[in-house]
Structure formats: structure tokens, C-alpha cells
């Protein structure tokens, strides 16, 4: 029976989306293909689900009524008859069919993708349990626009996780069909199969991610822009692009530029799909574009320091050269979360198909491979146009791509270290990222969260003197106090104020800027520390409350915050250097294990690489495997 519910949830979502697209096409007198109707109509269904979610109506009954209303309306209005099915080259089906079977079977299986389980469907499951959308301030991903997740929620209500993944699979199928149908003949076939069989596209498209859906929206907008240019559907797609992912908001500029005579109509329609997410964040979090722009919209949920360091990491992922970037996105994928396939070494052939510049313009903000997916269809079309000048060459290249992209083949040359040695359910920590699209294990990346930063600092402390809590500050005063406030005097933007340990231990601690995890400053573990969360700024403060009056307090700080200058009113301050805690490596290992991490994936550029390799006994490490310069360890 589980399969029946999965298929029902998926097919109802797809049918309702196509019906909504068909009704829209009929209303504006624009003839859509079935894939284009699905992509356009999914925007309408998504907005309807958002509205029901905000009003506390996330129930099977309401969603079933919504789906049947759209399907029944399209049937009554005979809108289905207005949909087209443009022909494609017969050779297309030979490459499309085996990958479609593979993708469908995996999409219908239990959802195991890291981000899909962690937050795309984690948030959806919570909305379903609560029967409404609600603020989730302790999860930065909950504040992103979630247009595609609304479709997942619709399908999840009936068929749970697998039904949601199958909805994303439908965007993958629609994208391939739109490419093949838009460019008839060999060019469309080659371009569609280059995209469809790409390993990162396939794995993303069969998971509860959103990148393939964004690519489908971008390409659907491109199809409309090169044809009749209907303003209302273009506005729908442009607005849905932003609702699916902030960075796809550039689609609105693209649409308005390509239809300048009706630009205001496009803008007005697009805002219907964009504003609900901005208003939601403004009302719930005080920041309309959360989790970004926290310096402009201060809030207690995301610190400015975390946002800046997170954004900085997203711009490089630890990749140190152009050559390393190219090999990662095309063949290896271990640092950038997946790879396109070796054939995309020919991508420069496709740069004259200018749509990739629009869809990929924001890629430098996050250089993970899957963030190239929206630009990929345009590059593939450009490649196909060049390669198919010689029919045999285009056919040979795409055939080679299909072979190299089959999982049994690419696993021979792509990184599989974690999947091989880490048991299911265990978490892996990595400094530089890894191809998460090819593993079902949970991965914590150092630069992806405050939690990741904390683990990084703990593991780096034994080999990096600046991360050791050896900078001691002693304050003494004459009149006993129970409440003591410590002030920050000077500012030094690159530094982050942090406290490793306080003695005597207070019973509570309040902070001016980041009043979270303050207990880490007096938990008895010198390797865990409270971070201010903002760059060092004059006027920041900490307020310590003790269970009895005191006349002195000592703080232990790390030396990676040279700009810190503190004072307590009426107190004398002295500084000194203390010895690092004994058995520092064993303490770090035990601390990280207590935080739920037992496995470490480390590459040669990472902090402490040589220390882990040369002093494994002191750490209590077992080396499980090695691929190139990357090593996998277990903390025993």
C-alpha cells in the first residue's frame, strides 16, 4: 500500500500542476507543451499551498480538494486539449529511457539525500505535523524561500518522502523534454541527454533538492522569451524562480529585459509570487531576506560574523586553483559536492548560448557544483550546436557521456570513500566539503554552520597555537559584586570575540550581541567557547551573574582575537600566558565525539592534516582509507 500512496501523492501533484498551467495558458491564449504547462502550473500550485499553510490548513482533505478542483476545472474548461506534445528525435528515447527507469526507481525509494533529509523534507515534515507553516528561527534554511518545498508538502501529505522526491524527478524529466522539443533534431537530443545524464543533475533531480527545479523554471522562461513572449506566464515563472531560490530572482530582470514593452505587467505578476516570502520573513524574523543581510536587519537568529564567514566559504569551498576547480566540477567532485561528468570539459564550446550568463550569474556566490545546474541547459545547447555540425561527432560525444555517467561506471572514478567506510546513520566532519550528492551519510562541513565552526576550532586547537585557550585575563576590584559586566573597548573587524572559560564559574551569562550558547564559556571544557557572533566592536558586553559576591574573575581566551580589549568598571586588569590544557588531542577527540562526530574526512590543505597523520595514537584515530590526498579517520 505504501507504493500506492507514493504514486498517488506524486501523480496528484503533477496532474494538478499541469492542470493549473493548462488553465493559465488557455486564459492568456498561449499554447503550452505538457512539460511547460507542468513547470508554469507548479508555480500556481505552490502559491496555493503556501496560502493554505499560512492559514493553518495543511491537511489531506484541503490538498485533495485543491488538486481535484484544478484537475476538474481544466477538464471542464477543456484546457487539456490546448496542450501540445512537440515531436523529438527517435534517437532521444534510446538514451532517455534507461536513465529514466534508473532515476524513477531511485526517486521512489526512501529519500536518503543529506540536504533532503536534513532540511528540505525536514521542514516539510514539521509543517505537515503542525498543519501550518510556522517560524523556525533556529534553522537558517527555514527562512529561505521555499516555493518548491510547497510542492513537496503537497505530495508529502499523501505519499511522504518518496512522493516529494518524485515531484523533483518530474522537473528533471520536464527539463529534458523541453530542451529536446525546443531544438528539434540532433541538437535538441544531444543537449537534452548531456544535461539529463550528468551525474550531479541525476542525483539532484531524484532527491528532494530544488536545483533541477530552478533549472527547469529558468529554461521554461527562456522558451517563452524566444517565442510569443506572453507577459503573464513570464511573470509567473520569474516570480516562481525567486520563490524557489533567492539567487534565481535574477530571472525577473531577464524576463523584463526580453519583454520590455510589458515589463511592468511581468513585474506585477512576479511580485504576487515573491512578496509572500519576503513578508513572511519580515513578520517572523524581522529580516525580509533572512538569513542574509543581517547587518542591515539585526536579529538574534543569524550573526553577522557567521553570515560573512559562511558567505566567504561558499565562494571557494577550499578550492585553491582554477585547475582544482575544473577537475572537481567535471571529474572528482570531492570538494564541491558532485561533478558534471568529464564531457563537460568541453563546456567552453557552449558559452555563446548566452542564457548561461543569466542563469549562472550568481554562481560565484556559491561554487558548489549543483549551483551550476541552472546554467547547464544553455551550455549544453551551445555545445550541441557546435558538436552537431558533424552528426557523427555529436552522437559519439553524447554516447560516451551516457556511458561515463552510468552509476556503475562513474563510481569507478568518483570519490566513494565515505560511502564505503562510514556506517549508515553516522556523521562525518570535513573541512572542505565532499560530494554529498553521492553519499547517504550525514555530513557536517566546517564552514556551513556555527556548529561546524565550533568543531573546526576544537580539532585545530592541538596543532594551532592561536586556537588554544592560553591568553589569561585577571580582573580584581575592591567592593564585592554578584553581577559583573565586561565591556569591549576597541574594534578590529577580522577578529571574533570569544571566551573559552571563566573562573569562578557564574550561574548565568548574558551577551549584548549573541546571547546563545553562553554556557560554553563556563562549562568546564577549555576547548569549547562562546563566540560573540559579530566582528569585534567597541561597546559589546558580557554580564556575569554569580551565586555569591566576588572580587575577582579570570577569563581564558584564545589568541586568534588580537583586537580584543576588555575592561570592567572599577577593576584592575592583568594579562598573562597560561599553559595549554594537558592531553589536548585526546580532549579534543572526546569533545568532538560528544558532539556526535566520529568520522573525519581531511584533505592536505586542511588545518592539522599533518598532525592527524603523524600523531594518530595521541588522537585515538584509526585511518580507514585514502583517495589521493584525502584521508578518512575514525575517532575511537
Would you give an account of this structure?
The chain has 3 domains: 2-408, no CATH class; 417-461 and 583-635, no CATH class; 469-577. 48% of the residues lie in helices and 14% in strands. It is α+β, with helices and mostly antiparallel strands. Strand 12 (621-627) and strand 13 form a beta hairpin. The strands form 3 sheets. Strands 3, 5, 6, 8, 9 and 10 form a 6-stranded antiparallel β-sheet that branches. The chain has a 5-stranded mixed β-sheet with strand order 2-1-11-13-12. A two-stranded antiparallel sheet has the order 4-7. Helix 1 crosses helix 2, helix 6 (147-182) runs antiparallel to helix 7 (186-196) and helix 10 packs parallel to helix 12 (263-285).
Residues in β-strands, percent: 5-15%
How does the major sheet shape up? 6 strands, antiparallel
Rough shape?
A: globular
Please provide the count of β strands: 13
Instruction: For the record, give the distance between the C-alpha atoms at the N and C termini, rounded to a whole number.
Output: 43 Å
Low-confidence stretches: none
Q: What would the average pLDDT be, to the nearest integer?
A: 91
What is the tally of helical segments?
23
How much helix, percentage-wise, in residues? 40-55%
Query: Class by helix and strand content?
Result: alpha+beta
Q: How many domain regions?
A: 3
- If you compute it from the alpha carbons, what radius of gyration comes out, rounded to the nearest whole angstrom? 27 Å
Amino acid at each position: 500500500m505504501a507504493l500506492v500512496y507514493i504514486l498517488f501523492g506524486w501523480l496528484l501533484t503533477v496532474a494538478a500542476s499541469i492542470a493549473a498551467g493548462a488553465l493559465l495558458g488557455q486564459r492568456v491564449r498561449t499554447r503550452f507543451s505538457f512539460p511547460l504547462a507542468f513547470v508554469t502550473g507548479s508555480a500556481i500550485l505552490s502559491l496555493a499551498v503556501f496560502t493554505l499553510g499560512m492559514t493553518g490548513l495543511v491537511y489531506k482533505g484541503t490538498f485533495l480538494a485543491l488538486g481535484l478542483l484544478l484537475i476538474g476545472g481544466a477538464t471542464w474548461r477543456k484546457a487539456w486539449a490546448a496542450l501540445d506534445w512537440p515531436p523529438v528525435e527517435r534517437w532521444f528515447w534510446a538514451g532517455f529511457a534507461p536513465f529514466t527507469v534508473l532515476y524513477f526507481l531511485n526517486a521512489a525509494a526512501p529519500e536518503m539525500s543529506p540536504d533532503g533529509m536534513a532540511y528540505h523534507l525536514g521542514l516539510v515534515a514539521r509543517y505537515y505535523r503542525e498543519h501550518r507553516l510556522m517560524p523556525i528561527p533556529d534553522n537558517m534554511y527555514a527562512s529561505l524561500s521555499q516555493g518548491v518545498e510547497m510542492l513537496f508538502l503537497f505530495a508529502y501529505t499523501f505519499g511522504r518522502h518518496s512522493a516529494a522526491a518524485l515531484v523533483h524527478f518530474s522537473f528533471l524529466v520536464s527539463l529534458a523534454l523541453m530542451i529536446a522539443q525546443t531544438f528539434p533534431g540532433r541538437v535538441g537530443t544531444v543537449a537534452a541527454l548531456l544535461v539529463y545524464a550528468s551525474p550531479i543533475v541525476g542525483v539532484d533531480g531524484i532527491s528532494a533538492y530544488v536545483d533541477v527545479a530552478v533549472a527547469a523554471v529558468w529554461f521554461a522562461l527562456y522558451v517563452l522569451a524566444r517565442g510569443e513572449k506572453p507577459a503573464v506566464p513570464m511573470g509567473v515563472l520569474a516570480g516562481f524562480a525567486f520563490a524557489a531560490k533567492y539567487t534565481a530572482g535574477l530571472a525577473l530582470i531577464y524576463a523584463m529585459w526580453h519583454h520590455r514593452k510589458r515589463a511592468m505587467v511581468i513585474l506585477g505578476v512576479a511580485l504576487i509570487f515573491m512578496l509572500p516570502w519576503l513578508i513572511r520573513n519580515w513578520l517572523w524574523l524581522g529580516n525580509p531576506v533572512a538569513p542574509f543581510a543581517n547587518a542591515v536587519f539585526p536579529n538574534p537568529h543569524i550573526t553577522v560574523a557567521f553570515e560573512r564567514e559562511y558567505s566567504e566559504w561558499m565562494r571557494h569551498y577550499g578550492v585553491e586553483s582554477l585547475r582544482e576547480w575544473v577537475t572537481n566540477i567535471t571529474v572528482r567532485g570531492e570538494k564541491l559536492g558532485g561533478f558534471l561528468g568529464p564531457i563537460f570539459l568541453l563546456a567552453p564550446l557552449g558559452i555563446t548560448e548566452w542564457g548561461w550568463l543569466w542563469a549562472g550569474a550568481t554562481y560565484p556566490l556559491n561554487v558548489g557544483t549543483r549551483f551550476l545546474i541552472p546554467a547547464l541547459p544553455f551550455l549544453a545547447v551551445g555545445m550541441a550546436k557546435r558538436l552537431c555540425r558533424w552528426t557523427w561527432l555529436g552522437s559519439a560525444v553524447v554516447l560516451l557521456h551516457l556511458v561515463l555517467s552510468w552509476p556503475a561506471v562513474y563510481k569507478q572514478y568518483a570519490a566513494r570513500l565515505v560511502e564505503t567506510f562510514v556506517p549508515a546513520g553516522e556523521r562525518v566532519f570535513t573541512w572542505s566539503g565532499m560530494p554529498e550528492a553521492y553519499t547517504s551519510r550525514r555530513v557536517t562541513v566546517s564552514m556551513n554552520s556555527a556548529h561546524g565552526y565550533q568543531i573546526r576550532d576544537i580539532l585545530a586547537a592541538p596543532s594551532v597555537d592561536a586556537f588554544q585557550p592560553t591568553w589569561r585575563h585577571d580582573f580584581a576590584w575592591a567592593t564585592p559584586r554578584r553581577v559583573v559586566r565586561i565591556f569591549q573597548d576597541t574594534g578590529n573587524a577580522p577578529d571574533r570575540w570569544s571566551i573559552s572559560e571563566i573562573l569562578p564559574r557564574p550561574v548565568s551569562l548574558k551577551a549584548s550581541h549573541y546571547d546563545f550558547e553562553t554556557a560554553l564559556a563556563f562549562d568546564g571544557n577549555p576547548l569549547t567557547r562562546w563566540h560573540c557572533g559579530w566582528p569585534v566592536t567597541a561597546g559589546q558586553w558580557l554580564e556575569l551573574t554569580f551565586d555569591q559576591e566576588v572580587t575577582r574573575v579570570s577569563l581564558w581566551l584564545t589568541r586568534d582575537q588580537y583586537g580584543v580589549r576588555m575592561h570592567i568598571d572599577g577593576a584592575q586588569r592583568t594579562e598573562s600566558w597560561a599553559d595549554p590544557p594537558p592531553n589536548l588531542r585526546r580532549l579534543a577527540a572526546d569533545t568532538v565525539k560528544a558532539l556526535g562526530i566520529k568520522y573525519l574526512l581531511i584533505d592536505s590543505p586542511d588545518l592539522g592534516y599533518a598532525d592527524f597523520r603523524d600523531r594518530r595514537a595521541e588522537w585515538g584515530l584509526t585511518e580507514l582509507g585514502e583517495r589521493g590526498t584525502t584521508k578518512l579517520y575514525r575517532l575511537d
